[in-house]
Structures are given as structure tokens and as C-alpha cells.
From TrEMBL:
<protein>
    <recommendedName>
        <fullName>DUF3562 domain-containing protein</fullName>
    </recommendedName>
</protein>
<dbReference type="Pfam" id="PF12085">
    <property type="entry name" value="DUF3562"/>
</dbReference>
<dbReference type="InterPro" id="IPR021945">
    <property type="entry name" value="DUF3562"/>
</dbReference>
Length: 67
């Protein structure tokens, strides 16, 4: 039984608020990451969750680094 797809707008809004990143940036990153994961996936049930986690982690760790 497959998992229901999360509401993309809610996922993007949540990540944007948590990371203080514009929703447009988060939306693009999420769509790109989701496409990458789906390209290689054999099981799709958790792909949206993995994509959201990766984007959230990239924004949290990337925005905290000062070079």
C-alpha cells in the first residue's frame, strides 16, 4: 500500500518558514530534488519525504556556513 502524496505547497511553506528561505527558492529546490530521487527510485512511497528532508538539510546547513 503506498503512502499518500504530501501537499507540495504545505511542504514548501513549512521548509521556507523553518529555514527563513523564500518559498520560490524552496519550491525549485524541492522540485529538482524530487525529480532526482524519482529518476533513480524503484519504490516511490517515501520519495517526497526524502526530498523534503534533503532540501531542509541543505538549507539549514548551507545557510549557516560562513566562508
Amino acid at each position: 500500500m503506498s503512502q499518500p502524496e504530501p501537499n507540495v505547497d504545505e511542504v514548501v511553506k513549512s521548509i521556507a518558514e523553518e529555514t527563513d528561505t523564500p518559498p520560490e527558492t524552496v519550491s525549485k529546490m524541492y522540485a529538482d530534488t524530487l525529480a532526482d530521487y524519482r529518476h533513480d527510485a524503484r519504490v516511490f512511497d517515501y520519495v517526497p519525504l526524502f526530498a523534503a528532508k534533503k532540501v531542509r538539510d541543505q538549507l539549514r546547513h548551507g545557510s549557516n556556513r560562513k566562508h
